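Open question from group meeting: does this chain pack into something compact, or does most of it stay loose? Before anyone orders reagents, we agreed to write out a predicted structure and look at it together. Recording both the input and the output here so the notebook holds the full record.
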Amino acid sequence: MSQRKSEQLPVDLVRLVWTLHRVLRRRQAPPPGESARPLAQVEVLRLVDSQPGITVREVAAALGMQPNNVSTLVTRLTRDVFIDRRHGTHDRRFVELHPTGKMLIAGGEVNESLDKAISGALRQLPPEAEQRISAALPELWELARALARTS
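Structure tokens returned:
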């Protein structure tokens, strides 16, 4: 790869990731009967969904937020019955966060609508484009892990 292309790659990746993020946020319709949630709440919900039993402190570290701000978000999400606070299974002094049934249903609906949107967009591309995107995913995940290690 030429030096110029190598220098341009980080810029292109940042532009692409932000564009995908913005487009997916617009396409992410709230479940029926719910209003759109602020991004910080969505990030907490997605993290609790992917790591049931996570603590407020762990959420704060993963998202680069202050624990008191995460605690405020969790209080709101608990009040709205999306997150359940439970005493820790190993140490009852800690509180673990778990998704509620309401959250699992709502998250499934949101994920289904995003899956449909992405599938529809992929169908508009030539078949070989979908194959190239799929083939690049392992390296993009490695890039994400490498970035996480350096932060």
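Observations to bring back to the group:
The radius of gyration is 18 Å.
The beta strands are 83-87, 95-99.
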